[in-house]
## 1
Amino acid sequence: MNDIFRTLHNGSAIPFDEVPRLEVTAFLQAIIDATDRGWRVSSYFGIPTESGATLCCVLSSKADGLIGMAAADVAGSFPSIARLVPQLQLFEREIAEQCGIPAEEHPWFKPVRFHHSFVPGRDAWGRNPGDPILPGVMEFYRVEGEEVHEVAVGPEHAGIIEPGHFRFQCHGEEVFHLEISLGYQHRGIEQGLVGGPDPRTPFRMETIAGDTTIGHMHAHCMAMEALSGTRVPARAEALRGIALELERLANHTGDLGAIAGDVGYLPTASFCGRIRGDFLNMTAVLCGSRFGRGLVRPGGVLFDLGEAERDDLLARLDAARADLENAVELLWSTPSVMSRLENTGAVSADTARELGLVGPAARACGLNRDVRHDYPYGIFRMAQIPVITTHHGDVCARTTVRWLEAGKSLDFIRDQLRQLPGGGCRNEPGPLQGNRVAVAMTEGWRGEICHVAITDDAGRFLRYKVTDPSFHNWAGLAMALRGEQISDFPLCNKSFNLSYCGFDL
Amino acid sequence: MLREIIARLKQGHRTMAYPKEPVQLPERFRGYPEFPARVERADGEACAAACPHGAITCDGGIALDTGLCLFCPECTAGEYVRFTTDHRLAATRREHLLVRSGGEHQLARPLEPRLRSLLGRSLKFREVSAGGCNACEADTNVLSTIGWDLGRFGIQFVASPRHADGLWVTGPVTENMREALLMTWEAIPGPKIVVACGACAIGGGPFAGSPEARDGVDGILPVDLYIPGCPPHPAAILDGLLRLVGKIEGE
Ligand code: SF4
């Protein structure tokens, strides 16, 4: 691996001063070189300083199974390299918005979440500090010409769904371009963590994206455990893995049903709607909450699994597998469904790579990336789950990946339940060590989740950075729509099913 | 077509018998609280100070505010509070969410008769997520699946506020959604009702005190039904709704 970056394993911590502080040009060049070699940017953020920010970049190298980190101090503004490394474009805008310093020569320099910066009075767009910042107020990209028209949708949508604004530039039915503007769900999660953790921190972690309670909470716990040097008992790791895969199953099942519903195929839609609930109810057997609230805590899990519950879960799992197979097989054998899924909303492997897509959306384009496999953590160091990829990058591919992954998760849970390790399920975590940085990544059902925690002298959070998979993937949805019929937007959107609150934080 | 029919037969009829029969809840479900031990004043004050969400108060006896409570498994009140598997948490008045030792269990009450007769047998909501984490949204949505089949009670979620009788709010009301929420409320023809679904919508939940959110709907719009929980179990939501429209009464 490269000697410029300080490397570390997923879920470990190092002294923060071991992260090389580079001169900014060298820092940016190192990022360009590393991404050229196939590294991905897992996180890129700023720690606000009096004159600007300390930029920190967290890259991951699949070939080495390692994470690399470097930093640079900037004053007043910082240079954008998004033209060379497109996967950085949103990160740079986020840094600008949070630290209040502009990204020079950014090709698409717009706010991300529409909030005041972390530094009172400092604003990357020179907006008046006293004025309110209104969501969605920015220059939208426009295609002009005769017969070109614009369609604006949201923030509110027709269903029970989170808010976001979508602008389509269309020619007749054909979409030339889709621009997505979010921020409506912004709850101030990262600002609220500075000086933490406090007793409310776990609850905020579990609600970063409520449908990914386990995925985010697990990443948070890994960061806390690395910072405090806490060992997690094997039994707890297995139970966390079971909960994570149940979360994946519930959401994948829900998505399979929703995709069927969007092409008007109601049998699978209604069966999957119910079966999704069966998986949520299995999580509730573990901990009383259908979303896994209160299960995972630093040091382990709060609920052990008894014999009776284990047998109950195994029986439920078998029943759900039979129902799910029955419901989803219908899709593949119905030509009218397949013709709607195939060749709709395709994203090429090159585009996916350039944008840094993650999770099923990336795997559907043939990119073999999965944190469970590439940077194994917790139970996945002992028990591997095969990575599923397909090629076409269209709605059908994203549907297929979900379906095949669901099968692998079912196998995994069954095996884990049958061979649960003995012993306790929680060790009391100690205090956090000061002046350290921890990086923790998990594979949520939408893809890579990355938490980076940096502590100050006293072991309190100096900066806590959360990157939800949706942060990488919204741009993928925008690209999927190019050249498509606008009426296919709901279907394409469902096939990505990205998080608004996970993005908005 | 034949395949669909066979699949339909295999999947069977799955709509639950609730409310005719009791709803199945997981053993570890944390629902309506009770106070098993007598609490001395000092202990009660310690409990109040320890709860990170400010759900416990102690003046003349311990009380738990289910609107603020997140039903944590690691409840700091320890042996003084026990969560039963009773899902009936919804209430029609904010103060009814304050559960006191020995106090009466305040269930949600029906809408006033004039409004009920105006609504007839149908009640339609426009849902707005104002910073919700997609858990309250998901467990509201689930009521429309075949397992719960909300439609059989004449209750429905609709696409336009113009078609709605009420506003269904999830989330702590973020700064960035406040205006859209108010515009939706304006667009609903009166008379109209408001439901605050989940801890965030009631009091900000985990995000209480965040400068980017408003600690819930109270103080912004008049709330007619509060449904506690983070997120509320679908059964808690349905209980509140059915009581509101008078389809469940008494215990
Ligand atoms: S469960 Fe949590 S929120 Fe409720 S009283 Fe106990 S500590 Fe407070």
## 2
Amino acid sequence: MLQQISGSIAVAEAVALCRPEVVPCYPITPQTHIVEHISTLVKSGQLKNCTYENVESEFASMSLCIGASAAGSRTYTATASQGLLFMMEAVYNASGLSLPIVMTLGNRAIGAPINIWNDHSDAMSVRDAGWIQLFVESNQQALDVHIQAFKLAEALSLPVMVNMDGFILTHAITRVDMPTQEQVDQFLPPFVPRQKLDTEAPLSIGAMVGPDAFTEVRYLAHHKQKEALSIIEQQAEEFQGIFGRDSGGLIKSYYAEDAEIVFVAMGSVIGTMQELVEELREEGHSVGILSIRSFRPFPANAIDKALANTRHAIIFEKSFAVGMGGVLASEIHMATVANDLKISSVIGGLGGRTITKKSLRKIIESAMQDELDTEVFLDLEGTTVVRELRRQQEEQNSGPVAENILRDMGVVSASKTH
Amino acid sequence: MSNQDSNTDIPCEQQTVKFYQTGTFTVGNRLLDEGCRTVQATAERANSLDSGHRACQGCGQALGARYALDAAMRATDNKIIAANATGCLEVFTTPYPETAWSIPWVHSLFGNVAAVASGIAASLKAKGDTTTRVIAQGGDGGTTDIGFGCLSGMFDRNDDVLYICYDNGGYMNTGVQRSSATPPAARTATTMPVGDNPGSSFTTGKFLPAIAMAHEIPYVATASVHDLHDLERKVEKAMTFRGARYIQINVPCPLGWGSQPALTIKLSRMGVECGLVPLFEAENGKLTDSTKIRYRIPVEDYLKLQRRFAHVLKPQNTHQLDAIRQIAEDNIKRYNLV
Ligand SMILES: Cc1ncc(C[n+]2csc(CCOP(=O)(O)OP(=O)(O)O)c2C)c(N)n1
Ligand code: SF4
Ligand SMILES: [Mg+2]
């Protein structure tokens, strides 16, 4: 059924159609509307056989998920940014224990400086945590991929994180096609775990594993993620069969196979890129886009194949490893190392800065002229940076950066100027 | 949620016993009618925590866990799922690929056991399973320090979980460091007996049973491993309530306390008899009963059997001894121990 609703409500409704049994929650912008809505669905009796818990922290919410999932319940929660960091130890634990928990990450920057707006720093902070990490481009995909996420998690016995851009998607009111309960039930069977905490069949979960078996356990976790590559593709196909929509999968190419210059990116920025690429192609330029929909497992082979005919790949990322650079860029580099592919890393949209079509056009035009650097910070405000760098050269380099900039502008506190 | 079933009276409390084991005031099981014996004394005990684990000789926690879980199993017709915090109990019972647990058991992290147990309870609730019950267990560090937030949250929501804290007064699994439950003056690896104030500080610490009472949860009790009848009775009683319950068990630790393994039971008893370990029960935040001290002993008799307090008995540290005596006095008044 077509509905005009926000991304958060769409996801909440989709999650409810998946019949979760336990949903612990803790508020943090920009995901809060999702868990608020689920709370109402449970409290009003619309979502039955579901225990909803208002807990005291994200660490507790993921820990409740761990207990509930180990006891055999389909389990869901959502968080973002600081919340994800606060639950970090439990995030690793959930994947280490192979628990099929589904979590939405309403992608948001990480402080300090505190910032509630969108980028991908939170998702990247758990890139080695052993979770499946999927990214969505639109609210329709967000809704669809959540339904696939439960099936995927339970098929693999692994937790799945659905990444949707904070505000840009969570708060955007768009038209979505909401599936029926019958469709979802047809796609997603009830959760039947092989092992769970059960008084009829006692088992110990979470023992201390020493050097004699740890490597094997870790290798098998890696292997399972690699297996997920084909399962993700299969499920996207199966989903398309029932729901008639192309959502999910590992990657999505927009003209990438026959384009000289290709943008590679994840999430909602693909929408802006699509508009630009259509324009540029009409102008006769050989450009395309490769959307990475599954970041973990990393579909290295599929990416390598998709970029086989590309001359220059521009990897656009909403986060970076400080002191190293673009994470996705270096992973794409690894994936395509056999190709004669030029790679540029463009970092943009940090802390919610708008990514304009105009700025992206400038990037691609300088690539066409072969003038694009290997590392670019999109729309970096040069004056401020240069002033701060100059000051750092002259005097001792101490104190928080954001506050140093203010001091140089003459603002110290509400009552004092400097 | 805090309603109590009616079958709480334990009939054996009525039996008149004529003999005591010399000097201990403990009633041996063989002196009791069969129906009045402890769960441990019966062949039907569940052996929830079985033999073959790797605890130190004389570990009070191994005893406490076994007693508590078997009592809970009897009270629930063997319908117990247990969650465990990281700590000695977790480490010595589950060296992969072995396990000493015969009940469904899960270990997740050090600081989240109360929340994991809440999750299990939430799952049971969603499935409409009202017979299976959940126990969370952790050491004093996992309970009073790192797991405090999750525990308080579990109390606040009144989740149907019995939380058992095995209090050995320190972070034993990592080599005996101070926790907020370490007794004042006690030597630990991070509070060595050096300087003007040797051993652990005389700050307020955290006496979690009182904090649990402040949450007004249905049931709070303290127990100690020397009194098996009392311990089992409290666990069984706890299982008659629904909602959040808390039991703290005093478990001597020969390694951390610097005591003889053979003295574990004796030290457990002496801690109670000197007033430093008050045994009581509380319902909905109100004290309902406390165990009277039969023969009060001087605190120094208790302290001198433990190397962690050796410095307290030196002439230059009488101020510490006096302060510890005062703590015993205060406990006796606060919890009506005489
Ligand atoms: C987050 C985290 N911090 C620290 C540790 C290290 N650690 C493991 S067990 C333990 C001590 C446990 O003390 P307690 O809870 O009192 O249990 P005990 O071993 O004394 O029975 C510590 C500090 C850990 N596993 N996880
Ligand atoms: S260190 Fe203490 S608590 Fe740990 S196993 Fe040994 S005696 Fe038991
Ligand atoms: Mg301890």
